Hints:
The chain is α+β, with helices and mostly antiparallel strands. It folds into 2 domains: 9-158 and 280-286, no CATH class; 174-268, no CATH class. The chain has helices at 16-21, 29-34, 80-88, 126-130, 137-150, 215-225, 257-261, and strands at residues 9-10, 50-56, 73-79, 104-105, 114-120, 154-158, 161-169, 177-178, 190-191, 197-201, 207-213, 231-233, 241-246, 270-278, 281-286. The strands form 4 sheets. It has a 5-stranded antiparallel beta sheet with strand order 8-13-11-10-9, covered by helices on one side. Strands 1-2-5-3 form a 4-stranded antiparallel beta sheet. A 3-stranded mixed beta sheet has the order 4-15-6. Helix 3 crosses helix 5.
Amino acid sequence: MVRTSGLLVAISVLTTAVLTSLAVTQGGQGDQLAKNRSGSEATTEFRFEVLSIHPIEREASGSLGVTKPTLNGFSARALVYQLVLAAYGPPSAILRPNRAFTEVRNLPNWYGEVYAFEARVSQADLKAWQSQGKNYDLLRAALQAALKDRFKLVLHKEPKQQPMLELVIARGGPRLKAADHSRSALPKGVGLDSGGVQTFINDGRAGWNFYGATVEDLASFLTIMSFGRPVRDRTGLTGRYDFTLRRDPAVPMVSSPDLLDALYLNDLGLKFKPGTEDRPVLVIDHVERPTQN
Length: 293
């Protein structure tokens, strides 16, 4: 297999016949797919107009992973595993692969090789590209097309019931204070997915302050510390809250079941409940090193 060069070569977008069959009369292929966002997997093919893929030395690659789309395309340094996970895993895998909890089987023996991606979407698709939601459906669809076209990827999913933790309301009800400030008045700290803010405290009972946060933000944060089990919000609470999550300072800050047990969730009127969910396994049937640009 010939390795790719760094030169850009245009990959043609969908032909007129395909566009017609999709009823895309204005705004390009992106408009049609944007109307069919499922939050999980692309329903219509979407392709980069221009795409360059070439191998780079791992020592010089720096940070690896799939990043947010740029204003007119996509740029990343990533492993094939990261590309597959971003394209076919849950939407969270785009920016937070450690929270995806998705198994990928049959990786090739060259899965440790790093590839540089530089891509651009067509002018007709630019508006839809720039307005895609936080699930990044157009980026995921374009990555799927790139993996099929350039890596000759053939993949299927196998259903599998896997463990998870449900975040539920404890006896006595929630003890969360409704946020009473605008986002512009939030303190400086770590930005949350909802637009809220998180800060770290250490006053003898270490923990974290949350401002203007949702319970979904809390579940996402708890997932970081879980031991192979994602945390899913099952409280039904939809508001924004200011609250403090404290932990037992005697427990080391490592990802383990002990750390979750050390969190004082009951102070918030919440608790964990063990459960299972269907998290499909991604099985690679065939994949090759990318074709030449």
